[in-house]
Amino acid sequence: MLVTQQDIYHSDELLQLLQSNENKLNLRSTILPSGKTILHQGDEIEDILFICQGEVSLYRTSEGGRRYQLGCYKHNGFLGLMELFSGKTCFYSVVLESEAQAYIVNGSAFQQLVCETPELAASTFKHLTSKWYLSVERMTRNILHSITYCVVDDLLEHEAQSSGQPYTANKNLECERLGTSLRVYNRILKQLSERGAIRVHRSYLEVLSVSILEQVRLEEVEK
C-alpha cells in the first residue's frame, strides 16, 4: 500500500491553531479504533475530524459496486473540509487502517473562525490545496500511464521516502487503487521479480534494485 510518511498537509501548524481556539471550536479529543469507517460516501458533514496520528485509506464506490481506492496516508490532518466548505456530501469513504488519535471539530464554528482569522484561513487553504493536488496527480497518473508504470512509480516513491523498509501490499486494495485485476497485478510483480528489481513476500514487496525499476519506468514511458 502506498503510504505517505511526510506531513505534506501542513498538519502541525493547523493543530496549533485549533488548540489555541479550543473553546470556540468545541474541540474534543478521541481515540478511534482500527477498521472503523469514519466517513461514508454520501454523508452530510456537520463535525469535521482532525487526525493527529494514524493511517487512513480512501475509496469511492460506483453505482455498479466497483471501488476505486485512492491510497493509504499518514498524518492526514483534516477530513471533511472539502465537503464542509462546498456544502456537498462526502465524496470518499474513509477507513482507519490503524488506531488513530483524533480531534472532533464543530464544522460551523470552524467555518466562522476561518472567516475571522487570516492565519487559520491561510493554513486551511494550504491544507486543502495540498490534498487536492495529490489526489488529482495520482488519478491523472493512473489515466495517462500504463499499470506497470504506476506499480513501478509507487515502488520508487516508497523507496525514496522509506529506503530499506518493506512495501506493504494488500493486493486486492492495490488493484482497486490502480484500476486493474489481480491477475494483471500479479503478472507485473512476477515480471519485476524475474528482472531482479523486487522480491515478492507473502504480505510485502522488497525492492532489490532501484536502477532496474527506473529502467522499467523509462521503458514504459517510451512505449
Care to give the gist of this entry?
The protein has helices at 11-20, 22-25, 81-86, 107-116, 118-144, 147-161, 171-178, 182-194, 210-222, and strands at residues 3-4, 28-32, 37-39, 47-53, 55-61, 67-74, 77-79, 93-96, 100-106, 167-168, 198-200, 204-207.
Give the structural class. alpha+beta
Helix content: 40-55%
Order of strands in the sheet with most strands: 1-6-5-8-3
Number of helices: 9
Overall shape: it is elongated
- Residue stretches low in confidence (pLDDT < 50, at least 5 long) are 1-5
Query: What's the β-strand tally?
Result: 12
Beta-strand content bin:
15-25%
Largest sheet: 5 strands, mixed
- The topology string of helices and strands comes to EHHEEEEEEHEEHHHEHHEEH
Could you tell me the mean pLDDT?
88
Distance between the termini: 26 Å
Q: What is Rg?
A: 19 Å
Note down, in words, how this protein is organized.
Helices cover 48% and strands 25% of the residues. It has helices at residues 11-20, 22-25, 81-86, 107-116, 118-144, 147-161, 171-178, 182-194, 210-222, and strands at residues 3-4, 28-32, 37-39, 47-53, 55-61, 67-74, 77-79, 93-96, 100-106, 167-168, 198-200, 204-207. A five-stranded mixed β-sheet has the order 1-6-5-8-3. Strand 5 (55-61) and strand 6 form a beta hairpin. It has nine helices and twelve strands. The longest helix has 27 residues, at 118-144.
